[in-house]
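Box 4.2: Ligand-aware structure prediction
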Amino acid sequence: MSGADLRTEVHQPDGGVVLDRLVTEDVAAKLARQDPTLWGPEAESEASIRLGWVDLPRTSRPLLAQIDALRAELREEGLDHVVLAGMGGSSLAPEVIAATAGVELTVLDSTDPHMVRRALSDRLDRTIVVVSSKSGTTVETDSQRRAYLKAFADAGIDGARRIVVVTDPGSPLAELAEREGYRTVFLADPHVGGRFSALSAFGLVPAALAGVDPAELLDEAEAVMPALAASAPDNPGLALGAALGAAHEQGRNKVALGEGASPIRGFAAWAEQLIAESTGKDGRGLLPVDVGAARTSTPGWGDAGDDVIRVSIGAPDDAVPGQLVTEGSLGALFLLWETAVAVAGRVIGINPFDQPNVEEAKRAARALLDAPSGEAAAAEEPVFADGAVEVYADATLLGSARSLPDALQALTRAVPDRGYLAVLAYLDRVGDARAADLRGLLARGAAYPVTFGWGPRFLHSTGQYHKGGPPVGAFLQITGAVREDLAVPDRPYTFGQLIAAQAAGDLAVLRSKGAPTLRLHLTDRSTGLEQVLQAAERVRS
Ligand SMILES: O=P(O)(O)OC[C@H]1O[C@](O)(CO)[C@@H](O)[C@@H]1O
């Protein structure tokens, strides 16, 4: 399909059987009419309150004047450093939008105390904080809000004037904002779920305050609405959804997302949440694998196995045959992918609008934080330490391994057939950025895909798939010592304790499902990380 703003190349792995069926069933037109019956009777009540995204390019228009007015006020007051406190669907879209437009937006989607401290110490006098949470109850976002209010108070700044809220009507955050007199509250459409909210107040407000033109994004998306609503085989959203769904039915249930030549930056991280949280449940689903720049030599791209579908975001590398291509303006791509994932959800036979397993890790973390002090700290002992790295795993996984390289090697051997290895780094994604190199190092020559996620960010993205999708993952969790902790104001825990509880809760849930897990704790972050990177280089697939 080709159009001014959107170009897709999609091959149907089943010769078009699924696509033809979707056309006959009039799925695209029904989706455009927000028909909640498309995912079966069990999903119907949830779907009936989750389809507002289909019309956002039009229904978000009234927001623009409100955003413009606020932006002008902030400029007048010299508040030009925009921080976004939010997780998952409340931060991933604005991050791509701002990066693509080349404007600065500080995205704080972590509980790592070093990362929070760094944000707090950066241009506080010129900072406006957008606190974004659909539910208004997300612990990370609430903790970040508290930390900023304290920092403003300590600096003699009126914090309430520096907080802009985006949330659903009636949420606890909306009520709090009203009570505390926060500067502005944008109430979002409650009929749009987090990961489908790119073109709502959640995507637009922070990005626009940072300097992006939100009208342009809506124009780009609106331009492709007719193509996405057509019950025809050349509907790009229907074709992409059919291809992903048909591939899943054939056991090709991993999607390598590669960034091709394109001005769009970081789209795969957004698509990752959309795909993983929407489809990864009931033991089924598509595993998104963000491989970064898609070059022939990129591990997990040129050499991906036959259970992986490659999708290029942007112009493809023609040396790698058989890839699907989605290329176009950012607004168009958002709507294309939302449509495709909703369609794939119907083919796979899941409810794309819930995330039933995310709560498990949250509950486990909460239980640890609520435990009488000392209990959480008296956690398990490492099996052994190698330099600045403590190693935690069960004896069955480690066998006789008593060095870091051997432990890593043991984990790679435990990756199930047609499975995957996930690196879960509960670290500082700025200060410990090199940890992300582990994906490529561990994927070189591997017969399985390797994913990488920063904790707790990934808990709101691929975390759902890891716990609810096919049980074929092996998990490498990395945690790090805290050099300088930070209290979460008016809470009985610090950020260091919070991230530790989130990591421990996550690990407990993965273990309870019988997944092979290895935890590496860096007692000194930079030395330990260097050791882990060196050990990863030595792993033989
Ligand atoms: O916007 P909220 O309610 O803070 O939620 C953030 C994220 O957490 C989840 O609800 C669950 O991980 C995501 O679906 C969502 O995008």
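In the box above, the bound molecule is 6-O-phosphono-beta-D-fructofuranose. The two ends are 39 Å apart (CA to CA).
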